[in-house]
């Protein structure tokens, strides 16, 4: 039987360090940046699952630390967050919850992140004045030696929408 009370009591729950390096506040809805594992090793009796890139999450805890501050140009340390998935639930109806994750587990931590400039809400990134969808062209694997235009499902030149 899952231990719901322990599961929902994440390490930083309700904590909101302001200011924080990311400028985020509790309740912000953001997106996972890559595959994020939830319920690792059956934590608290819940089934382990991988959250795909772009999973919508709500921040429920924000901790600004001094960790790695000496390695950042701005001298500010790392941010750790707790979040709950907006659209995913465990088998008992409890929101899928992740605690004490590095801020870079979310797309919005990346300065290249941008929603599509055409208003579609599609997730993507900006490189050299061009927005690229995170979605791959069908049948194309990521190859960092090839141009993004050849790999991404959509691209939009920013000067064309300005």
Note down, in words, how this protein is organized.
The structure is a single chain. The protein has 162 residues and is mainly beta. The chain has two domains: 4-109; 113-160, no CATH class. The chain has one helix at 4-8, and strands at residues 29-31, 36-38, 49-51, 56-64, 79-89, 95-102, 113-115, 123-127, 130-133, 155-157. The radius of gyration is 18 Å and the shape is globular. 23% of the residues are buried. The mean pLDDT is 94.
Radius of gyration: 18 Å
Low-confidence stretches: none
Major sheet strand order: 1-4-5-6
What is the average per-residue confidence, as pLDDT, rounded to a whole number? 94
Distance from first to last alpha carbon: 55 Å
What's the structural domain tally? 2
Main sheet overview: 4 strands, antiparallel
**Tally of alpha and pi helices:** 1
| Strand content bin | 25-35%
Helix and strand element order: HEEEEEEEEEE
> Based on CA inertia axes, which overall geometry fits?
globular
